[in-house]
Amino acid sequence: MKAVKLEDKRPTWTSKYAFIITAIGSAVGLGNIWRFPYVMGQNGGAIFLAVYILIISTICFIPLINELYIGKLTKKECVGAYESINPKFKYLGVLNPITGVLISAFYFIVGGWIINYILKSLINNDVIDYGQYFSEFIQSPLYPCLLTVLFLFICVFITARGIKKGIEITNKILMPLLAIILLFLVIISINLPEANKGLEYMFKPDFSKLNSHMILAALGQAFFTLSIGMGALLTYGSYIKEDKNLVKSTYTIILSDTTFAILAGIMIFPAVFSFGMEPNSGAGLVFVTLPKIFSQIPCGNIIAFAFFILLFCAAVTSGISIVEGPCATLVERFKISRVKACSILFCIISLLAIPATLSFGILSDLTIFGQTIFDFLDFLTSNIMLPVNTLFLCLISGWYLKINGVNIINNKIFALLFDIGLKFAVPTALIALVYMGLK
Ligand code: TRP
Questions:
Q1: What atom of ligand 1 comes closest to residue 232's alpha carbon?
Q2: Is residue 4 part of a domain?
Q3: Domain extent for 225
Q4: Has residue 257 been placed in a domain?
Q5: What would the pLDDT profile of 163-220 be if each residue is shown by its tens digit?
Q6: Rounded to the nearest whole angstrom, what is the distance from the C-alpha of residue 68 to the centroid of ligand 1?
Q7: Three-class SS of residue 367?
Q8: What is the pLDDT of residues 65-78, one digit of tens each?
Q9: What is the mean pLDDT of residues 214-233?
């Protein structure tokens, strides 16, 4: 009886729309606007996009719907969900909130950088060398730490307010705003002189650039951008009251996420080519190349402001989904309030994020397996923990629970493909991803 009562107390989404928009909010983040364009820039442009679209619409569908389905089925946070399948799996479940905490440590650092660039666009000071500006900023000891903690505080504060009053409302406001700003910037970008060079780079594939490394880069990017692998979606799925068509919801999430990523590319590449810059400058694309471009166009400050607000909205809606997983675990397992759980997370994540922030400056000599703390956290989570967690969940569903595709998908052929994918194709792809990461 007690258990039933507790379950009754669990929050649920106010509507199906609320669920979908928050899941899209989780998916659309720095992964789309910061990471996707630079990974695409490093991997040959259009051909990468083609491979990426193929992967995200087929292979990624399976672990995505699987995570949502397990959440919806068990109606529990991650650890409880794994435990209710088999008590021994509890320890595999624990890896999810741990991954969440580790991811936050580096995700919120980039969030802090964004706040800096928003403030900078308001002040209108002249910077001569943007590369130098960026590296001096991230190396300074105090300011980036303060901004990281501020960004973390914003996300934790929203999460602490709860599912309806915090997470849902924020997504309902920020996601449409994000779409409007993105469209506004896309229109400006495609009207720049020689914008067609950027569009060509994005849409005219050069097949000679196809290689296995790029395919795995696309796979890793697709998993990251869909927020698969740390129980964020499992937790969101556990708040679903009723969704008779999870397949449609899953495809809506994938389609929206891909649209945002492509629009981010259309916003960035024409501008990059129009100003004769390089598309393959890596992580600095958004923080060095773009500010350089903004400084050369009329009303550049306003455009820079709009762009970094866009990035900020995207990062906040994803940031709260990263906090929600571990938060739900603390609340439901230790029976504490959301505020208490969020306060604990705020302290733990700050303790991790501050040294990671300092790893660009005074702690740059401190390395783990030859990498700085920031790089190590990024590597450990994106290349190892996210794929490993996804692998476990697919194996549990496919081989232990023996989930049948026909229970989820209304079409026999697709259901069969789903079964094969869940048992064989996705685990193989994930093992290849981890192997490549470790090489
Ligand atoms: N998908 C988000 C992005 O594109 C990041 C993110 C949010 C995430 N929650 C996650 C990544 C859970 C992996 C797992 O920026």
A1: 12
A2: no
A3: 16-438
A4: yes
A5: 999 999 999 999 999 999 999 999 999 999 989 999 999 999 999 989 998 998 899 8
A6: 15
A7: strand
A8: 999 999 999 999 99
A9: 94
* Chain centroid to CA 186: 21
176 Cα: distance to centroid of ligand 1 (angstroms): 19
CATH number of the domain enclosing 202: 1.20.1740.10
Domains identified in the chain, total number:
1
pLDDT band at 3 (very low <50, low <70, confident <90, very high): very low
Q: What are phi and psi of 372, to 5 degrees?
A: -70, 165
Q: Is 149 in the pocket of ligand 1 (CB under 6 A)?
A: no
Dig out the tokens for 396 from the structure: 């549990």
Distance 322 CA to ligand 1 centre (A): 7
Identify the pLDDT of residue 8.
Answer: 54
Amino acid in the structure at residue 172:
K
CA–CA separation, 386 vs 233, rounded Å?
13
Asked if 78 and 235 count as a contact pair (C-beta separation under 8 A), the reply is yes
Residue 275 alpha carbon to ligand 1 centre in Å: 31
310 lies in some domain:
yes
| Strands (DSSP E) found in 143-224 | none
| pLDDT the model gives residue 243 | 74
Q: What is the CA radius of gyration of the chain?
A: 21
Nearest to 233 by CA among 418, 382, 52, 66: 66
How far, in Å, CA of 124 to CA of 113, rounded?
Answer: 17
Whether 295 is covered by a domain: the verdict is yes
Given a contact cutoff of 8 angstroms between Cβ atoms, the answer to whether 59 and 226 are in contact is: no
Ligand 1 atom nearest the C-alpha of 26 is: 7
Phi, psi at residue 160, to the nearest 5°? -65, -25
- Measured over the CA atoms of residue 266, residue 267, residue 272 and residue 274, the dihedral's sign is positive
Average pLDDT over residues 365-387: 92
